[in-house]
Specification:
Helices cover 19% and strands 38% of the residues. It is α+β, with helices and mostly antiparallel strands. The C terminus is likely disordered.
Length: 182
């Protein structure tokens, strides 16, 4: 599908990015890009695969601003097009192309821990949140890892859930810093 116009950032209603994207895709002359990631998250029932928007509550759409603005803003799931007063910022096509090449244009980007001994990780939950460590042992049957970390001036080995660590260089770390919950 080819569209004319510019790329804009749209704000969706909370947890409705996929609904907004689906409704926008049905509109003529509107191209949609919703970057998504897929990863394992701890739940009450254990680890489960989840798919979330890379930018919660935001997606991108290319459309002719003059002709389609009202229709896009009225789409189900869309809270509005990001603007600052009477200024409607355009997202450069190169930025969208870079995002599409990094996380994929259509399918969710799969984030798998794939941890091995020697990997540098950051602890993402619990009392040790934000501390860096090195994986010393992976225990796949228990879905846990042993990590070596500097704590209170000495090296300490602790066991943590595999879902409680973020591998250095993970997309979640690049996109959100250390504040992303796992």
């Amino acid at each position: 599908m080819t569209s004319t116009g510019n790329w804009f950032c749209l704000r969706s209603r909370p947890k409705h990015e996929h609904i907004a994207a689906a409704h926008l895709r049905m509109m003529a002359g509107v191209e949609v890009f919703l970057p998504r990631v897929r990863f394992k998250r701890s739940t009450r029932q254990g680890l489960a695969w989840v798919t979330e928007a890379l930018f919660p509550n935001y997606l991108f759409a290319r459309f002719d601003w003059q002709q389609s603005l009202r229709q896009v803003q009225a789409a189900r799931g869309v809270a509005g097009v990001v603007h600052f007063g009477d200024r409607w910022p355009v997202v450069e096509t190169a930025v969208i192309v870079d995002l599409q090449s990094s996380v994929g244009a259509d399918e969710p980007y799969l984030i798998s821990a794939g941890l091995i001994s020697g990997d540098t990780v950051e602890i993402a939950e619990g009392a040790m949140r934000g501390l860096h460590a090195v994986v010393t042992r992976v225990m796949p049957s228990r879905e846990r890892v042993a990590v070596l970390m500097d704590f209170l001036g000495r090296q300490t080995t602790i066991e943590v859930s595999e879902s409680a660590v973020i591998k250095e260089g993970d997309v979640r770390t690049k996109a959100f810093g250390t504040d992303l919950p796992v």
